[in-house]
Amino acid sequence: MPRFYCPQVLHPGVQVELPAAVAHHLHVVRLQPGATLTLFNGEGGEYRATLVEVGKKRAAALVEAHEAVEVEAPYALTLAQGLPEGAKMDWIIEKAVELGAAAIQPLAARRSVVRLSGERADKRQEHWQGVIVAASEQSGRNRLAQLHPLAEFKTWIAAPSSAPRILLSPRATGSLAEWARATAPGPATLLVGPEGGFAPEEEEAARAAGALALSMGPRVLRTETAGLAALAVLAAAWGGI
Fold first, then answer.
1. Which has the closest alpha carbon to 106: 78, 144, 148?
2. What phi and psi values does residue 107 have, to the nearest 5 degrees?
3. Cα(141)–Cα(176) distance, rounded to whole angstroms?
4. Cα–Cα nearest to 63, from 8, 23, 15
């Protein structure tokens, strides 16, 4: 059954205008009136609906019933990702959402090749938000992961945090898996550097701010692999997959 994010008030018995991007998709795939859809607005649960109108630029659906379906993990994990090259960030965000990340924090690190500011940064944030929506539609999540604004690493790491920060580093002696097995499930932030990792002074700043440096084994993982592997490790230890 097709699933779509519809950021508006949804109630059974109400006919709603679907977002323009959804209307375009329905037109392209030639879905006809009478087709059954699943809608969600990010506030919990999902709604069964029937498509009543579809055209090139608009579509409408009749909301029929609310279903209290939740697939969120019982803990909130944030992936703080140093900006990688090219389109890697899209892939990282998409897979992090599929793996249950509750929030994404893009970070401009010293070794980040990509530099974003002003209008370019705003457009990239909007694009990443679209990636989150699409990944949520595909994976069955009914709540969107929060996308934090792009931040400079040195500024972000200096701000206080109520959740533990885990600095993923191949030089660390502690094990993420062992830490997870010995720690009760709860909110945490995973710090992943860009290509080449965080610079030594960034790692030092993270440790000084209270971050716990942990490793995932003897192999050095690419930036687009490390955070996703860490999310999977915690899910395996704490449940949620």
1. 148
2. -125, 135
3. 26
4. 15
Domain boundaries, the chain: 3-67, 77-238
- In order, the DSSP letters of 212-225 are EEEE--SSPPPHHH
Place of tokens 């993270």: 206
Please, which residues bridge with residue 108 across strands? Answer: 152
Q: What is the largest CA-CA distance in the chain?
A: 59
Give the architecture (CATH level 2) of 3-67.
Beta Barrel (2.40)
Rounded Cα distance, 14 and 92, in Å: 37
Instruction: Please write the tens of the pLDDT for every residue from 69-120.
Output: 999 999 999 999 999 998 999 999 999 999 999 999 999 999 998 888 888 8
Those residues of the chain that have pLDDT short of 70 are 241
Of 29, 68, 64, which is closest to residue 50 (Cα–Cα)? 64
Please list, residue by residue across 53-85, b when 16 or more beta carbons sit within 10 angstroms of its beta carbon and e when fewer do. Answer: ebeeebbbbbbeeeeeeeeebebbbbbbbbbbe
Angle between helices 223-238 and 88-98 (to 10 degrees): 10
Task: Look at the block and give the residue holding tokens 């059974």.
Answer: 12
- pLDDT at position 115: 86
Q: Residue 138's CB: how many other CB atoms inside 10 A?
A: 12
Cα separation, 107 vs 151, whole angstroms:
5
Q: How far apart are CA 24 and CA 31, in angstroms?
A: 11
Q: How far apart are CA 37 and CA 204, in angstroms?
A: 50
CATH 3.40.1280.10 fits 77-238, yes or no: yes
Cα(207)–Cα(205) distance, integer angstroms: 5
